[in-house]
Each structure stands twice: as structure tokens, then as C-alpha cells.
Amino acid sequence: MKRWFFLIAMLLCSLPWHAQAGTCFVIDDDSGVIITYDSDLPFNQRFTTNIQIDAVVTANIERFESAYFDSVSNRYYVIYQGTPNIFGYVRPNDGVFVPLSPIVTGMGSGNGPDGVITPNDNGAKGIRGLARNPVDGKWYIHDFDGYIFQVNPITGVIVPGAFGGNDYVRARTPTGGTFNDAEDFAFDNSGNLFMTRNGADTNQFLRNINLTTGVAASALNLNLGEAEGLSNSLGDIRLIIGRSGGANARNFYSVNTSTGALTLLFNVPRTNADFESTGCNDGVPRADLKLAKSVTPSAVAPGGTVTFTLRLEHEGIDIAHRIQVQETLPAGMAVISSTQGPSCTFCSYDIPTGVWSVDRMDIGEVRTMTLVASTTGVTPNSFVDNRAQISQVCQAATGPCVALIDVDSTPGNKVGSSWAPTEDDEAIASFLVTVNPSVGKSFSPISGLAGQTTTVIFTFTNANTTSSATITSVFTDTYPAGMVNATTPGGTTTCAGAGAITAVAGTNTVSLGAGRVIPANGSCQLRVVVTASSVGNYTNTVGTGALTVTIPGLTLTNVVGATAVYQVTPDNVGVIKQFNPSGIGTGQTSTFRITFSNPRNVTATFLSTFIDTYPTNLANAAAPNPLTNCASGTAAAIA
Questions:
Q1: For 57, which DSSP code?
Q2: Which among 349, 380, 518, 570 is placed 20 to 30 Å from 55, CA to CA?
């Protein structure tokens, strides 16, 4: 993890990047339900979803005692208390659990002064707490007996030798006594570690645990039983009381870490819920909007009608406001109608500008936008590409639009009319205007990692409205170099009639034999599973004349080729920006941090100077003091 530090001065009293509340979540350990809510008071529940382990929701009872939300990756990290314990993350929008630890060996074992300890099941050896130190970026877990381990958040395994050569350190009271019944822990913004146990006593709440010795600097009595969850919410250490806490059950408190005094914040009104783990983002609002696009039919006669469908999904955690999607129709096309669903207060499509407007989207929400368009002005026998991209996302519903950060894409960064999608907020759909038979080609999915599989789909279309078309010559497609049929190609077709499908594993061709039939004014498909082993773009083209068909008295071929691109992507580096503190008055200063992350096991080198330009009225302070811990290179910031 690499960080740059800049000192800046705030010249306006309002902070545009703090336009909405942060987002927190809490897990009901008895049902495996995640509740998403605003960090600001009063309590406002926004979304719920079930954590899904192998698609079996009911297997989640008493399995989630520890959780942490990582804003950089937009993930709910949790530990599933199975046999063994598994470190992974939950997708915020649908609750699917993605394991990172090896399924068989879990997070591994730790060796130290008390022998070998293996996180296992949900008893004394089950992991109870998960936290990240905001100062050094390291991740830690602890079990019921207070044993603390460092964990690698990429591989999900215990880091060996992290504690002076030992794999763990045991939390201890100020006098050196052991600390059992440990329920959860959390770091404050200064990197001080606090841990709580379930029952009230003089050592219930350990303060400033030394990660070399495990000994706490002091301890406090919170005077409440069933203390289950601890988290850092925008610098505030919060405590959850579990289901068995009597009148205090499901209460959330702010903890004064100096005195142990508790301030009741709210109660989550969910009958019988047993909340034991919670987490919050860092107060910087973020979205993760995803766009997909399709067109039907894939080929039409000149003057025909096509329907474009956009699917907009919010996979992030913070509310997105005033979303705009740019979808300008290609030359020669005209809008017949536009619809958007489900209904919303301010949703529209503006024909002159080609912009869809969506007033608001929260976590897990999906919108569908449909354009019906005429091809009257489109040149016959030509491919038409219709592109769409998210061009604006705002933090607030009113006022000047302050851009809401998207964790993996940049709204509105494509210009011109010939770009190819490279981010998940961009999409393209293509169709053919022709009276000849046509071949459409696509990959599903359109991108993946090396060695993963994708399905290549050939769509054969017969624009003749009265007669079916019979394929009279073998149709063969040769893949680009580096792409081959998967181990199980599974070649299938919806084309009627005879004609063999040939797709041999490890080879680079697929064919469909003569005798297959394309229905009148319709289409059929050929599908085969392929794979590519190296990073790059794989452009697969079907040439003109590749498809030969006959209709009564006439032999026709496709007069326009078809091209599809499959992208094998590397694990991307990440960039995230943070202010500390996140709110200041006029003329006060805040530290600006840019964090560069590299998930791969090889060094990433800057090929050009990284420059960040501040928004209007934000400037470097009189003494910016730029610092960086990136190897080589220097940080520069002029007052």
C-alpha cells in the first residue's frame, strides 16, 4: 500500500465532499442478514440482503461474528465461521459471499508461545473480530481467547511472523492477565486498538493494546453485558449490545474511550436479531454504477425498428443522485419512444441531447431504460453501433453537482463516436441493417481474467419476411491467436434442422454444418465456450461471405462482416483519496492522502507523473509538507 500526504487549506466554510451521510452495515448473526444504514443520526435503514454461502441462506445461523467494510474496494469483509474459518467478502448489492481463504485450509494456523492455534468453527477458536489499522493499513483478527493474528486481505491467510517472529500475540489486561470471552475489537483513527469482552467487569474494555506485547495500557468497565460488536464509525468507536442484553438489546452506543462513558445513539428495531458485527465506510461517499446494453433484433431490413435496452445497476453502498446516461443515437436513426422503469419522480430521456436522467439510486437498485428507434435513414448493409456511458453522478439531490466517486470507473471520460467500452459504466450494442442474411457476433461476458471462460455467440438472422433460409455451406469461424475452445466447449445451436456442430477442446475453430435453417424474419444462434490465457484484447471477426443460405430461387451471403472483442484484463491498481479530518472551517487545514494500491505480486511502476488538481477554492496550505512512502520519485506541492 502506497500513500501520498498533502496539507491543504480550506477557503470555503462548506465541504462539498461531505454532502451525504456515510454508510454503515450491521450483521444479524442469527439470520445472516446484512442491514445497511446511514452513519448519521437518526437511524435510517436503507437496504437489507441475506448473506449467501453456496446459495444456501439458512446455513448462516451463528456464523458471522466479525466484519469490516473496506471503502477502497467497496466490499463487506467478513469471516465465515465454518470448519475451518474462511476470510472473504460479501457483495453489497446481492449478499453473495466470495471466499478468499483456501476452502480446505481456511486462514491457516498460527504458531507462538502457546503452541499452534487454528481458527475453527464458531466456538472458542472461532474468529470474533476483524479490523484494519487506518495508520499502517494492516488487517487483524482475534479469537474468543484474545489471540490476535495479522491477516493478508488478498489471500485471506494468517501472516506468519507478524509479531516479533511469532504468528500471534495474546491480548492481556494491564496487569498481564489473560483476556477471555473477547467479542470484538476496533482501531481508532490514530491506530489505537480497543477490545471488548461480553460481560461487565473492571477489565471489560481494554484500551491501547500493545501489538508487540499484547498488554493493554489500561482497562475500563462499560457496565453493560452482552457487549458484542465494536467498530470505528468516522472516528467514533461504537458498541453493539446483542440480543441477550435485556432492555439494552440491539442498542448502539458511542464509547468515550477515555472514560468508558456510553452515549445511546439508536436501537435497531428488528425482533429477535442478534447483532454482533458491524462496520462503516470512511465518510467519503462512493458509488459503483454498472451499465449493460442490448439491442433486438440483431438485424433488420432498411427502415425497420429496433429496441435498445439499458440496464443500470447500483452495486455500491452510497446513494447516487442526479445520474445522467449519455445515449445519442447514431446518424440515420430517430427515436420513436422512450420508457424507464421502475417509475421515479424525475426520470426522462431528452431527445435533443440524448441524455437519460435518473433522480436517485441506492444500493442494489436496478433501472431499465428502453429506446425504440427507426432505421429509416441508415445506409443498407451496414453495422450500427449504439454507445452509452454514464456521464454524471452527484453526491446530493440539490445544489451544484459534486461528483460522487465511482470505485472502478470515471463518468463521462469517453469522447467521440468510435470508442470501445473499457469500464463497467460504458456499454455498446450493435445491429445490422440488411436484406441479406447476417451474422452477429458477441462474447458473454465481454471481459475476464486469464484462463476464465466466455461464451462466443453467433446470431444468424434472416430478414426475409416470407421464407426461411437454409444454410448450404459449412459455417466456420477461426478464433484469434491465443483463444481456443474450452475444456468443455458445449457447442449448442437453436437453428433447426440437421448439420453437425464441431468444436474440439483446445482447438481454435467452431463450425456449423449445412442443413440448418434460419426462420423467416427471425434468427437462431450458435454458442460455444472458449478461453484465453494471456492479458489483452481478442478481436474475432467473421468475414463477408462466411454465411451462405438459400431461399426459394435465390442464394445469398452475408455482405457485412461481424466483429466482437473479448478483453482479458489484469488485476487493476487502485487510487483512493481521503481528507483527515473530513470537515474543517474556513482557513483551517486538513491532511489530504492519496493511496495507491497494487493487488498483484509484482511491483507497479509509475510511467508518468501523477497529478491531482483540487476543486475551486481548495489550495495547498502555507506549508504543504508533501510526503510519500512510494519507492523512488518525489512528492511536490507548492503553497
A1: G
A2: 570
Question: For the ranges 77-91, 245-259, 530-544, 553-567, which has the lowest average pLDDT?
Answer: 553-567
* Rounded Cα distance, 357 and 344, in Å: 10
Query: DSSP string spanning 605-638?
Result: --SS-----PPTTEEE-SS---EE-SSSS-----
Q: Which three cell numbers stand for residue 25?
A: 452495515
Q: What is the pLDDT of residue 50?
A: 86
Beta bridge partners of 321: 360, 394
Strand, helix or coil for residue 277: strand
Burial code (b: 16+ CB inside 10 Å, e: under 16) for 252-269 equals bbbbebeebebeebeebe
Of the chain, the end-to-end C-alpha distance in Å amounts to: 27
Closest by CA to 185, choosing from 175, 168, 171, is: 171
C-alpha cell at 181: 470471552
Q: Are 124 and 61 in contact (CB under 8 A)?
A: no
HSE toward the beta carbon, residue 287, CA cutoff 13 A: 32
| Contact partners, residue 500, CB within 8 Å, separation at least 6 | 511, 512, 513
Over 70: is that where the pLDDT of 585 sits? no
Residue 13: which pLDDT band, with cuts at 50, 70 and 90?
Answer: very low
Question: In the beta sheet, which residues pair with residue 101?
Answer: none
Cα–Cα nearest to 273, from 229, 224, 316: 229
Q: Which three cell numbers stand for residue 283?
A: 465518510
Q: Which helix or strand (DSSP H or E) is residue 319 part of?
A: none
For residue 519, whether the previous peptide bond is cis, meaning omega lies within 30 degrees of 0, is no
The C-alpha atoms of residue 54 and residue 63 are separated, in whole angstroms, by: 14
pTM of the model: 0.63
Over range 434-463, report the average pLDDT: 88
* pLDDT of residue 576 exceeding 70: no
Q: 527-561 pLDDT, tens per residue?
A: 999 999 888 889 999 998 999 998 776 678 888 88
Scanning the structure block, which residue is given the C-alpha cell 495507491? Answer: 596
Dig out the grid coordinates for 638 from the structure. 507548492
- The Cα–Cα gap between 80 and 82 comes to 6
Cell numbers at 117, concatenated: 492455534
- By three-state DSSP, how is residue 247 classified? helix
Of 420 and 518, which is predicted with more confidence? 518
Cβ atoms 539, 563 nearer than 8 A: yes
Give, in order, the Cα–Cα distances in Å from 268 to each of 37, 47, 50, 66, 273.
10, 13, 17, 18, 9
SS3 call for 187: strand
The predicted structure's pLDDT at residue 349: 94
Q: Which of 61-75, 390-404, 465-479 has the lowest mean pLDDT?
A: 61-75
Predicted confidence (pLDDT) at residue 436 exceeds the cutoff of 50? yes
Q: What is the pLDDT of residue 19?
A: 44
CA 428 to chain centre: 21
Q: What is the dihedral of CA 285, 98, 153, 425, to 10 degrees?
A: -40
Given a contact cutoff of 8 angstroms between Cβ atoms, the answer to whether 74 and 290 are in contact is: no
Per-residue pLDDT tens for 384-425?
999 999 999 999 999 999 999 888 888 989 888 888 889 999
* Three-state secondary structure call for residue 122: coil
CA pseudo-torsion sign 397, 398, 403, 409: positive
